[in-house]
Design a protein that fits this description.
CATH architecture of the largest domain: 3-Layer(aba) Sandwich
Shape: flat
Largest sheet: 5 strands, mixed
CATH topology of the largest domain: Rossmann fold
Number of strands: 16
CATH superfamily of the largest domain: Nitrogenase molybdenum iron protein domain
Strand order of the largest sheet: 4-3-5-7-6
Structural class: alpha/beta
Radius of gyration: 25 Å
CATH class of the largest domain: Alpha Beta
Number of helices: 21
Distance between the termini: 16 Å
Oligomer: single chain
Strand content: 5-15%
Number of domains: 3
Helix content: 40-55%
Length: 508
Amino acid sequence: MSEDLVRTPADGAPPALETAGGGCHAGADTMRDAAAKAGKSEVLDRYAADYPKGPHDQPQSMCPAFGSLRVGLRMRRTATILSGSACCVYGLTFTSHFYGARRTVGYVPFNSETLVTGKLFEDIRDAVHDMADPEKYDTIVVTNLCVPTASGVPLQLLPETINGVRIIGIDVPGFGVPTHAEAKDVLAGAMLKYAREEIMAGPVAAPAVMPDKPTVTLLGEMFPADPVGIAMMLEPMGLTTGPVVPTREWRELYAALASPVVAAIHPFYTAAIREFDAAGRTMVGSAPVGRDGTAAWLAAIGDAFGLSADAVAAAQNRFLPAIAGALAATPIKGRITVSGYEGSELLVARLLVESGAEVPYVGTACPRTKWSDPDREWLEARGTRIQYRASLEQDIAAVEEFHPDLSIGTTPVVQHAKTKAIPGLYFTNLISARPLMGPAGAGSLAQVINGALRNKDRFDAMKGFFGGVGEGHAAGIWENVPVDRPEFKKKFAAKMIAAAKAEEAVGN
């Protein structure tokens, strides 16, 4: 087989991607073109509208399918089947188990023959039928990765139900979904759509817990203590929290859709918001973070429910003093840059600013939406530059420009900062793993942030002691220090550029 990706119908089967050396290594543009020719134009156009890219090709994040896989693996009575290259499936399952998943992941392998002839779809269909046991599962999620999507494997032709088990097929190609955070939305939106149509068709199972107050659905993954804290803040207004979407079981989707108001805590859930709009629900942006953020958010929730000013004031007066006190008791002093790919970067920046920190730059891999406007406007009014769809290069450039006392970011950003003797904290593991909302969130970051800030002297001491040892081409321990060969690097780079241009020409 060649590097070309060819649409070849066989015996009435749907067009497929012929790969024999290309596959997922063929390049995003080539695979995107092949997917469009193979009948995936509608889904790709939908993704392009929902998840617009920035000026660069794609943010440097992990495989986006990790996001949708994570959502499915965290749901009870939900099975997951992946269809993709074996290396991709291995990497995704390894990462998911690293993050604590204790669930089996189904895999439908393929080869050139099954991919080209349409047999892969038949194999997927057979696997779904074999797995559809209503005693074990409410739902089976089938996910196409890059190559099956590019080949046009038609998951939409799978039955909607088998033996009473719901079947949901989604495409999550790296060339169509920019980040793993947005891939969470792909599956969450597909599930909400399915649940909404079930509700419209007739009675559905009641949620396990039925609150006796009007509820606010929370959209976006968050620290487990945050929904509890939000419920406490809503209580003086006669409200409480509904489910958190992505949910932990299917029936929670019905409850989420039943809430009159939905809080877009993470503002990038475009597909999910579309389903809530279709259900006639009111959306509210931002989150109860810090004193200012909590005051504004409670007021917005009150407006959405048509509550009186007195009801909103009752909630504000009960909690705002406690939040202000917690912020004052645990101040953060220093210049901090923030970057990440979770979607909560602006919320974290707000909390840092209210804690006393200077935050000149926030980079997020997620796109700009109107639901992040309250946070963007608040931060920009205080001198913070916001970069949506931030690339690694932009995040590193911010470290170079602002010379922060602390850099919060992804692993390579933190690594770069430390080479400059700047303390760094990994956003996902050290910042996301803490409450952010209300009084509990007000002082939650201070200990880890201030601890890192105090490490500056240690970094300076180590930098002074080691000098330039172990940098660049001389990194490591050698009897004879290696000689740099810039002329070889230049020659090799030129050859690589020429090879890439030749491959692109062949693909076109």
